[in-house]
Design brief:
alpha/beta; 2 domains; six-stranded mixed β-sheet; three-stranded antiparallel β-sheet; 10 helices; 11 strands; elongated
């Protein structure tokens, strides 16, 4: 919450103009009081008449009264603080690599099944108002499910993902951007705030360069968060040959950097869950202005109580 607020009704701040008037009036009263004191040659008599009061305490209690009025004036203008709240209509597109390399078993039970489980958990951890879409990334990427708040339908789409040939990362990003376009727009006809989460372990094998699609995403203010999944020793058997399928971290990091996102690594199921948590913590929140009038009123009440106690103290005739 910010303590330098905007005001919902700034025109009401005119009440603060009364402060210098009150200060001037107080100084005039002090001056007149001093003139009255000069009329008495016997200061003992004056002390019995007006009582014994320390000057600094009198000034303090007057200051508390003025401070109370100032804060009440600010409260009257309806101050607005800033709080972070989950975005409404935010859209998260999960791009899941379904290429044959995801059958590697260096992550139990295999990369694809572990990815499905982690993606499902990540989806359920998102606010209910978020739209979630899923893109299957292979040589022929497709939108498995368009943006929706139906978590059951999205989970079924994730579980239905199957292995396929090829890895067209650039085309997959383009498909993810098309999925964002399908998200419902607001009353102002503006596109929903969005992000892309890409889980992949392979090098781009076909289609356009991923960097071009990543720059397009940046131009639309849609960051891409990439998760390089798997271990350096991961392998798959293809036509009787064992092939290493270590994640291509350099390519995935370049995609994230070009789009304004972030790249993380996940060489096991636990790390994959942590990666999703990191992503969820840095996106999907916006600054929302909220009234904080009650806070200012409480501060004004505190000043007023001190001022009231001071008035009682000055009015009382304490025994000597």
């Amino acid at each position: 919450m910010s303590w330098v607020p905007d005001f919902a009704n700034p025109e009401r701040l005119w009440t603060l103009a009364l402060l210098p008037v009150l200060i001037i009036a107080y100084l005039i009263v002090l001056r007149l009081r001093g003139r009255v004191a000069l009329r008495f040659t016997n200061t003992g008599v004056l002390g019995r008449v007006v009582g014994s009061q320390k000057r600094w305490t009198r000034h303090l209690f007057v200051a508390m009264s003025l401070a109370s009025l100032v804060v009440l004036g600010l409260a009257y203008a309806n101050p607005l603080g800033v709080e972070k709240q989950p975005r409404e209509r935010a859209t998260v597109v999960m791009v899941v690599d379904t290429s044959l390399s995801m059958s590697a078993e260096d992550v139990s039970p295999n990369r694809l099944d572990a990815a499905k489980k982690a993606a499902t958990q990540f989806m359920h951890d998102l606010p209910d108002t978020y739209n979630v879409a899923v893109v299957s990334m292979s040589g022929s990427p497709s939108i498995a499910i368009p943006p929706t708040t139906d978590r059951g339908a999205t989970e079924r789409a994730i579980n239905a993902l199957e292995l396929a040939d090829g890895t067209a990362i650039g085309d997959s990003i383009t498909s993810a951007l098309k999925a964002v376009d399908q998200a419902p727009k607001g009353d102002d006809d503006k596109a929903a705030p969005a992000m892309i989460v890409m889980l992949s372990d392979g090098t781009n094998t076909e289609g356009p360069a991923p960097a071009d699609a990543a720059r397009e995403a940046k131009g639309r203010e849609i960051p891409i968060f990439t998760i390089a999944y798997g271990t350096e020793n991961g392998f798959v058997d293809v036509d009787g040959r064992r092939e290493n399928v270590a994640p291509d971290t350099a390519t995935l990091k370049a995609i994230a950097d070009a789009s304004g996102g972030k790249s993380v690594g996940a060489d096991n199921s636990a790390a994959l869950k942590d990666a999703y948590k990191q992503i969820g913590s840095v996106i999907g929140y916006e600054d929302v202005k909220k009234p904080i009038t009650a806070t200012y009123a409480a501060v004004a009440l505190g000043f007023a109580i001190v001022a009231a106690l001071g008035a009682v103290f000055m009015a009382a005739r304490w025994p000597r």
